[in-house]
Amino acid sequence: MPKRSDLKKIMLIGSGPIIIGQACEFDYSGTQACKALLEEGYEVVLVNSNPATIMTDTDFADRTYIEPITPEIVGKIIERERPDALLPTIGGQTGLNIAISLHEMGILQKFGVELIGASFEAIQKAEDRNLFRKAMEKLGLTVPRSGYIRSLEEALLVIPDIGYPAIIRPSFTLGGTGAGVAYNREEFEEAIRWALDASPKRTVLVEQSVIGWKEFELEVMRDLADNVVVVCSIENLDPMGVHTGDSITVAPAQTLTDKEYQIMRNAALRIIREIGVDTGGSNIQFAVHPETGEMVIIEMNPRVSRSSALASKATGFPIAKIAAKLAVGYTLDEIRNDITRETPASFEPTIDYVVTKIPRFTFEKFPQTEDVLGTQMKSVGEVMAIGRTFKESLQKAIRSLETGVYGFEEMIPPTIPPNPAARRKTITEKLRKPNSLRLYYIGEAFRDGWTVSEIQECTGIDPWFLENIRQIIAMEGEIRAKAEAFRKEAATLPAAFGPFLRRMKANGFSDRRLSKLLGVGEDDVRRIRYAAGVRAVFKRVDTCGAEFEAHTPYLYSTYERENEGNPTDRKKVVILGGGPNRIGQGIEFDYCCVHGVFALREEGFETIMVNCNPETVSTDYDSSDRLYFEPLTKEDVLAIIEEEKPVGVIVQFGGQTPLKLAVPLEKEGVRILGTSPESIDRAEDRERFAEMLNLLGLAQPPNGIARSTPDAVAIAARIGYPVLLRPSYVLGGRAMEIVHDEEGLRRYLTEAVSASEAKPVLVDRFLEDAIEIDVDAISDGETVVVGGIMEHIEEAGVHSGDSACSLPPHSISRETIDEITRQTKALASELSVIGLMNVQFAIQRGKIFILEVNPRASRTIPFVSKAIGVPLAKLAAKVMAGRKLADLGFTSEVVPDHVCVKEAVFPFIKFPDVDTLLGPEMKSTGEVMGIDRTFGTAFAKAQIAAGMILPRSGKVFVSVRDEDKEGILAAAERLKRCGFSFVATRGTAAFLTAHGIPCDTVRKVNEGRPHVADLIRNGEIALVINTPLGAQSKADSYYIRRASLVYNVPYFTTLAAARAVSLAISDLIADDLSVRSLQEYHGTPPTEATGAR
Description:
Layout: E1 9-13, H1 25-39, E2 43-47, E3 63-65, H2 71-81, E4 85-87, H3 92-104, H4 107-110, E5 114-115, H5 120-127, H6 129-138, E6 146-149, H7 152-162, E7 166-170, E8 180-182, H8 185-198, E9 204-208, E10 214-222, E11 228-236, E12 249-251, H9 258-275, E13 280-288, E14 295-301, H10 306-315, H11 319-327, E15 354-360, E16 381-387, H12 390-400, H13 420-432, H14 438-447, H15 452-459, H16 463-489, H17 498-506, H18 511-518, H19 522-531, E17 537-540, E18 554-558, E19 572-576, H20 587-602, E20 606-611, E21 626-629, H21 634-644, E22 648-650, H22 656-667, H23 677-684, H24 686-696, E23 703-706, H25 709-719, E24 723-727, E25 737-739, H26 742-751, E26 761-765, E27 771-780, E28 784-795, E29 805-807, H27 814-830, E30 834-844, E31 847-854, H28 861-868, H29 872-880, H30 885-888, E32 899-905, E33 926-932, H31 935-945, E34 955-960, H32 965-977, E35 981-984, H33 986-994, E36 999-1001, H34 1012-1017, E37 1023-1027, H35 1030-1046, E38 1051-1052, H36 1055-1070, H37 1078-1082
Helix pairs in contact: 1-10, 1-11, 2-3, 5-6, 13-14, 14-16, 15-16, 18-19, 20-29, 23-24, 25-26, 31-36, 32-36
């Protein structure tokens, strides 16, 4: 069937900020859907609160609304835009939940908006566990025994039938939020309370446990003519009991017999038809009993899911793009496969390689949380690797993670004398409880002579996977046995070691791991390997097992004889991506990489992308001219550069990942485009940085570099406490801490980081009560233009990635802004910056200090670009390719006449026992943006978008330290005028009452009951303002913050944020929120899709 001509305007709902369980795979799918619909000539309206994704650039829709994704606001946009249809299946769980709310509120019916992609009934049938179970029973398929409950009493009635252990899952949540496992009644009651709070509809499913069963997923697509294809099968290496987003997964499935696979495939086809997903992708999860082979259906997502991104990248089959085209009436046989250009989309992909995905965890950011994996998702990102065998792809995935691990590294340091009993105990514990390092402990177990069946008994992992890992460990033994001969003879007789090296490389061993096992340098291994003629070749991902020619070069490396790379002789640039998402390095850097690709293509270069993150737009096969899905290590990048021979490499877009490779690549003779590695080093090396600031006459906080504990103590005594401590060369504030006395300093140096010659610790005077400013600028080597000046709402000391900020600044003087601009330009000129630069300033009592300078794209580039309507990353790529800003028409700063506020989004609810206080170490996973005419309204929108629903009336709880009491008055008076009443702890209550603000007194948590946390739990408090001082007070008020978080009461822990929220609430009460598109703010007409082929 041809596309529908009765639809003119289609609205898409994005997935909002990056959170655990809903990361940038939905930006990838949403971007694909926007491009596909624009390509078909539809008018596209997009709603998404996330500024960091390329999807919210004005090029990807005719109307882009960066507004909070709530039913009320989306309803206003529908009323304003009057779309014909709404596509809710590409915005993750957020998009689905909003579509359901809009339907239930009658808004879709009122404005005649049709749901396309999946009907309301199909969404309900797949999402509502009861309806889903009935549908499966109708098909004669088994689902685990289960019951729905809405209260603890109901839960206790259903549990006898289900039995322990029981799985508890709240409905309509994402990434397993609130899910848990209960082995006894006490755990069950606690889990039910937690889950009822987590579910937006207060309904929870209690389900029979299938922990330990094997887990599989099928990615399925269906069109209106009832054609169904299975795009990809995925097998989880970890058995049931670990959330699939936290599992290591492998495609295609490895351990099913053909008969078992056919039974599963037939079930999937019947399920998608029964649920009634008319068009688009669905993901169906199965569990299979490891002994009996019994199969049960776990769940179905009637939308594009996290696994859809993986399946798309694993097969080269663009699920989201095809889903969007099916939603507007096409059938699978009418859509051409872009890669082969011969086969239609109704051809099921065939793959002749193995894909492994490994999740990336950041437990080090939350030391209070135990590293244990369960049914609630905790990973913040993932990597994917492609190899000819499972062994090769697994070892490539391990080195893609960027955790300093290059293979099956030893996890337990050898003890003197050896203690085998203690070793066995540690290994057993690490195998029994799933955790982020379990894979490496399996390696340790094999080293100690454990058998496959012993490890299977501990982990429930299928013996096929374990046998492959055992063979890798056996090969390590073989490498060690050859080490002495290799050191003596390889340099003179490399060819003799050729077959040995080829076999090890084909099994995925990195040069780095080989060098460790052989006792030589990494560069020696590469030199000998090349001399022996052992080099990587490149194969193509072609969707069809090499049956047809592949036209889009989507490549991976392996060690075989035939090379399918066929590089061109055009002038080309390699852009290095950011690798896996993690806290501190997220999608903002991918945004910059994609802009770089589009800009260089416009400049006539062939663009080559290198990245290993399956969730992102940069690894879409049609973003760049050539895509290498490879680890971002020196070895893997050099192999690509030798194959392609580019004119240069761009390292300043992908965050710290490519920057770390700049100097090693330059030493190998690779040309780095943009700011030179020498300049980058001047900015990153603290001693050289201080020299430069002295030369320019600019101030920085008093500081020193400690190479030992006595050093640190002496420096702190000289510059005065409090001091900020951090290791040199870090991103996302890893292991940063503010200490107030010598005791705290010594504790940090023994527990967090030990100072040494090789790894010095930086000691800076911490500026209390300072305002922090972030500046993004662009330079072509001659002209420097400030992109944006952002004022942080939290005071200095909160990591810039975690602080809310406003552009333009809302409280500093014109003279200060001019002086900041002058200093920024002086720094960019001195460092000969070519491309982007970010500077962080602190203003303390009118004096300007420079905290740090990063001569690269920062995480605020997408936010600033959207606020000012200028694509900074795109301009920077052109400047690096030799263009001048004057020719590009950007020579002076753009100061918008609207206000944009960026707010961070945190994962605290996923980690029990973690305090929500912010500090110098970054903890946020994503961000949202509020945009409006005034600061108060923009801040309100940012808070609502981040999930803080601001109250318009009620009781405010205030508890502030003595030095903040004067400062809180303005905010309290404003809230009092808005009609709020107050309750406070003793000291604060007395102060407020004395200043004409009537206030009730409540006990602190340690003063007996009922205390403030009880009031929060009872729903009596509408807003919490709490600024703690010192360790004891932080511990006291921890319960207040944790209760606010769990019971979803808005809480603010700094004076500046309290002032901002009082402005926001008074603006909200005075005037209802209105919506406008980005195109209207910037006065740009609707555009054709750019960057799309």
